């Protein structure tokens, strides 16, 4: 059915050294959030969904296998081109084997929502990183829908067995944390419930599930709620119609070569087709405030999402204060923003980062440790991260970054090393394959010294 997601058993240490200018034109891999959802909506639509530009990273491949285990026929037609023959809402098959989501919180949590609305029982598991991550944030609202956890590790963690509801109930649920995964799990469960399912979020998070629900023909309404939030209402039991999905380039992956180009003198890099959804572009907003030269060449709509081509040039950056309200629009980008901040003049304070503690690693601690290993002062004060910038090219380097099975820490550590005299070692780059399988050759092609 699908290529194997691959094994992370082999750790691969590498070193990034001071590099000359990065030059060239690239396209980042397909967006991870949209890729997971394209497969899941393919499973839930009746008929054939064609996907182009799918991210073929280990996380998304795990979701493809789970879709197959729940009854879809999933075929790879060519590079990034996939076909899913779905079963339709209400018609999932009970999986015979454990659904293994590897390193992926998104895959596991969204699929818990799908299973919760169906009369099937499934065992969910993942790697050592995913087994540490909180699942109660989705299991609590899914219990209101009628799903039951039959077994779990301590605190509702993986591995766990989830029994979906025979008669799922529509709920109104206010998410206690700003999380698109929690919101999406409730909406996906609500697809199988009669009547209206409503999710209220105090701070708007990425809206790909709502957009794709509408795109596949569901009746979904989104209205503002309070100063920064939204209220999303879905009418359950729609017949989802298959629709072709073209996955835009992932801004969270584009962020790594983008920041590398900002830090290396003489760089000029064009990045094509990057998703510019306002709920995802907090990094570009922040970097511009720091003085980054990022030019937008062509803004357009592709497959329902706003995308743009970017041209990035070496820039002298200055420290800024990043407000807490911006966190949901750049939640995965703080590790690489911290690398930019280390190379800026002055102090950068990033506020309200509590959610970083429950990502693929405790990213707040991992980022502070990474910077300290490079000779940069970094403090954690409550949920804030404070970085004392060394100025352009001023980070000494010479240490080792501990990645904790976290792809974004690995890529951030490598970009950090590119702008140091002494270089930076990164203890394990194997996990980069979860989201950006071609990162190392792509960076080498631009002139980065990694190896
Ligand atoms: C994602 C939501 C975010 C993000 C993750 C992808 C999604 O997680 O960090 O990489 O696709 O819905 P949370 O929902 O936990 O904030």
Automatic annotation (TrEMBL):
The active site is at 332 (proton acceptor). GO terms for biological process: amino acid biosynthetic process; aromatic amino acid family biosynthetic process; chorismate biosynthetic process. Phosphoenolpyruvate binds at residues 32, 105, 133, 181, 363, 408. It is found in: Cytoplasm. 3-phosphoshikimate binds at residues 32-33, 37, 179, 181, 332, 359. The keyword Amino-acid biosynthesis applies. This is 3-phosphoshikimate 1-carboxyvinyltransferase.
